[in-house]
Amino acid sequence: MMIIVAIFCAGSAATITAIVLNYSTLSSLWAILLSFLVTILCGIAIAAKKAALTKGISNFARIGAVFVALTILTPAARPYLELWRGAHGFWSFVFLVWLGILAFTVVSIPVQAGEEPGDRQMTP
Predict the structure, then answer these.
(1) Overall number of domains in the chain
(2) How far, in Å, CA of 54 to CA of 40, rounded?
(3) Among the listed residues 81, 67, 13, 21, the one whose alpha carbon sits nearest the alpha carbon of residue 41
(4) pTM for the complete prediction?
(5) Quick check: is 49 in a domain?
(6) Cβ proximity of 10 and 74 under 8 Å
(7) Is 53 helix (H, G, I), strand (E, B) or coil?
(8) Domain enclosing residue 18, as ranges
(9) Is 92 a domain residue?
């Protein structure tokens, strides 16, 4: 089941990378639609992660999924920072923040795999 999470996270990461690398040639509508596709893929990955709780998840699978997501997102890091410096207007910044949140979500889904929502207990 964790392979499904890894596949959907990889697809999400590849889509985010494509948006960042092709930002100047994409229309705003296509960029927003592709970001919604990332949201849908992340939702499917979260559903697969919850289904995988019944079978158990190995740490190796979690590390592998995080490694794949980070490897696919790596080529977009420097162009993202260049886009951030060159962005003009409120909505450009909002969209770049949205892409950053999506990238964080793509990485955090496999990191949190195997944990129930109430597993973390705060120590005083």
Answers:
(1) 1
(2) 23
(3) 13
(4) 0.86
(5) yes
(6) no
(7) coil
(8) 2-111
(9) yes
